């Protein structure tokens, strides 16, 4: 009788354990909680931002772009433009191998429609020959002229410019010789385009210029001046 009572007690306790044991697995109707969205509050230093810029009639387009670059401390990449200009000064290609900026300057009087406007504008101080604007125009008789802008470029009506702004620019000298290629590869493996102390080398704002392969003596910096007078 005692053994039968003990067996009944063990069986009853086992039944109670099975009764209070929680079932395995996820409860019915449950689901993963949604994760909060990731919001980026700051732009990357290498971000390109698109702009539609309207230059008012009677204003110098080159000087307007240079002023924007100086105030924002950003580089401008000009993609296209639409509108009309008047009394344009263009630098034609040099017939000899004198290098950029050595060709003759031609002054065109009258009103011209912009076919193309491309180039870049950097805030001062900037390395000479790196930035500049080139334009192609069509005259009232259908003649097409073009060249580098060498003076004031006055808008004779509203001119809309499509451009992108950037904060960082990496300068590389091409072609890269074997020794520089080895150094560049080692630098890339260590830091992936390591940013040097550019203000100490060039005197440029830290947020605009970075350099991975160009030695300090490649570019000499001059006092910044309006692009329209370059």
UniProtKB/TrEMBL annotation:
Keyword NADP recorded: no
Keywords of this entry: DNA-binding, Nucleus, Transcription, Transcription regulation
All residue ranges annotated as the PPC domain in the record: 45-189
Superkingdom, taxonomy of origin: Eukaryota
Positions of the UniProt region annotated as Disordered: 1-39
Pfam families the record matches: PCC
A GO molecular-function descriptor: DNA-binding transcription factor activity
GO cellular component: nucleus
Species annotation: Artemisia annua (Sweet wormwood)
Protein name per its UniProtKB record: AT-hook DNA-binding family protein
Subcellular location: Nucleus
InterPro entries assigned to the protein according to its UniProt record, in alphabetical order: AHL15-29, PPC_dom
GO biological processes: vegetative to reproductive phase transition of meristem
């Amino acid at each position: 009788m005692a053994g039968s009572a003990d067996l009944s007690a063990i069986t009853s306790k086992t039944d109670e354990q099975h009764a209070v044991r929680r079932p395995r697995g996820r409860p019915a109707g449950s689901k993963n909680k949604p994760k909060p969205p990731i919001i980026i509050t700051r732009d990357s230093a290498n971000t390109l931002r698109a702009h539609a810029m309207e230059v008012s009639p009677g204003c110098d387009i080159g000087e307007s772009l240079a002023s924007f670059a100086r105030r924002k401390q950003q580089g401008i990449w000009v993609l296209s433009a639409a509108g009309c200009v008047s009394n344009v000064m263009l630098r034609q290609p040099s017939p000899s191998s004198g290098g950029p900026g050595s060709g003759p300057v031609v002054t065109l009087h009258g009103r011209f429609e912009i076919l193309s406007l491309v180039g870049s504008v950097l805030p001062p101080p900037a390395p000479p020959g790196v930035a500049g604007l080139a334009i192609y125009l069509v005259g009232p008789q259908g003649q097409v002229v073009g060249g580098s802008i060498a003076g004031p470029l006055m808008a004779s009506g509203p001119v809309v410019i499509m451009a992108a702004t950037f904060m960082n620019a990496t300068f590389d000298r091409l072609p890269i010789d074997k020794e520089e290629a080895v150094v560049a590869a080692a630098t890339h493996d260590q830091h992936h385009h390591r940013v040097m102390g550019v203000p100490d080398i060039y005197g440029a704002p830290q947020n605009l210029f970075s350099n991975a392969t160009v030695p300090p003596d490649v570019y000499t910096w001059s006092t910044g001046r309006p692009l329209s007078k370059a």
